[in-house]
């Protein structure tokens, strides 16, 4: 399959743009997708001079993975995106694999004549040789110059050696790079982004090892918002063997002194980022201003088990909706990472359907009047006597539905896409995600984002997240609040219809 981007651009710039742009079957309406062709990981996410930059692994000539470029888009709110020309193209050192970008505020690199500018740090890949390189931009990321001294980190014989994430480490006055290397991460340090020194490694014996480690991220967060109690979060993806099957992400909590990461937990303990099948290669924005103070990340909403086969055209893959991440002490005293959709989602909410203090019972769908494909649900439900309850989404007749349900006896939250729509493109697509989630005082809070071809579920204030693609018929617009074997009390439920961000 070969789609020439300029053809599509010409088409979309024509008269029909306002009504038909981004209306193809399965086209996400409030998630980021490239106009055409293949996308995977988010790269180079950085905020600079009022713009959030999103680069991404991109193959501009095919619907399948191939020679990687960095596609580029910008946004002022992380909700509405503007496509820009390709940021980085392959060159004599190879194709451009994943990486990050930072603002060199104090011109530590000497590349900006004393001013500030953007530096991208990425993996050059040629004939399976992976080395780290940099590029810099004098014009807010519009054009990039590859550094003449590339690569800045040579490969000393490691097969998988990629995905540099760089940040400024205030305490040691140095840049730090975390890099995936086989099934561990390596840390490098630098004063100028050009010369790097290896300082330590982590992870050979820690966490999950079902596949090669990829796309790490590392940052510090306050616990329960307390600036005097902070922990470092090391996020690492694994190419296979994740909790829901195939590729997925895990995280570690600990300390980091600019050189060494120490895990707070036992090496055997695994903390999963997301229990769904489609949340991979998560990266957070660099340089979000202190006044804002949020740590926000996005992931590639797919799974290497079937990413090349999902039934979308003329693009392939979407990013997750951006999430704010925080550390919170749970009722058992453990600190966990919690995630929630960024508050900017409120700007695309339109009509609201509200329910307050109503009893839900079998065969009495409180949302029977709702027909919708783009929406957000915020619900607080108290268990009375039911044995199971939850939502059936993107439902059509008896044939299709995506189920987000709670099984009272087993004390588990389930997302089941067995009947969610098209699935025969891959044997790995069907199935359900099941997570232990004992209720406190019989209460369950759910927040759910539903788009044309995805469902993102956040339970109990983001303590558990589950992200999944679905490919339902466009007629699948019914929403059901279902209850089995008794009753629940719907303390509050807000269903917001959402607007497209693309037209
Ligand atoms: C993760 C990944 C990265 C690599 C990129 C190549 O999905 O495999 O490790 O840099 O994709 O496109």
Q: What's the CATH class of the largest domain, please?
A: Mainly Beta
Rounded to the nearest angstrom, the radius of gyration is 23 Å
CATH architecture of the largest domain: 5 Propeller
Average per-residue pLDDT, rounded, comes to 96
How many helical elements? 2
Class per helix and strand makeup: mainly beta
How is the biggest beta sheet arranged? 6 strands, antiparallel
Q: Characterize the overall form.
A: globular
* Bound ligands, named by name, code or SMILES: beta-D-fructofuranose
Task: Describe this protein's structure.
GO terms for molecular function: sucrose alpha-glucosidase activity. This protein has helices spanning 5-13, 17-20, and strands at residues 37-48, 51-59, 69-75, 82-88, 95-104, 117-126, 129-137, 145-146, 161-169, 174-181, 184-190, 197-202, 213-223, 226-238, 248-256, 261-263, 271-272, 280-284, 296-300, 315-316, 323-329, 335-341, 349-361, 375-383, 388-396, 400-407, 412-416, 432-436, 443-451, 454-459, 464-469, 478-484, 487-498. It is mainly beta and 503 residues long. The protein has 2 domains: 31-306 and 318-341, Glycosyl hydrolase domain, family 43 (Tachylectin-2, Chain A, 5 Propeller), CATH 2.115.10; 347-498, Jelly Rolls (Sandwich), CATH 2.60.120. Strands 23-33-24-29-30-31 form a 6-stranded antiparallel beta sheet, with no helix packed on it. The structure holds beta-D-fructofuranose (FRU). Beta-D-fructofuranose is lined by residues 40-41, 57, 68, 97-98, 123, 162-163, 214-215, 281.
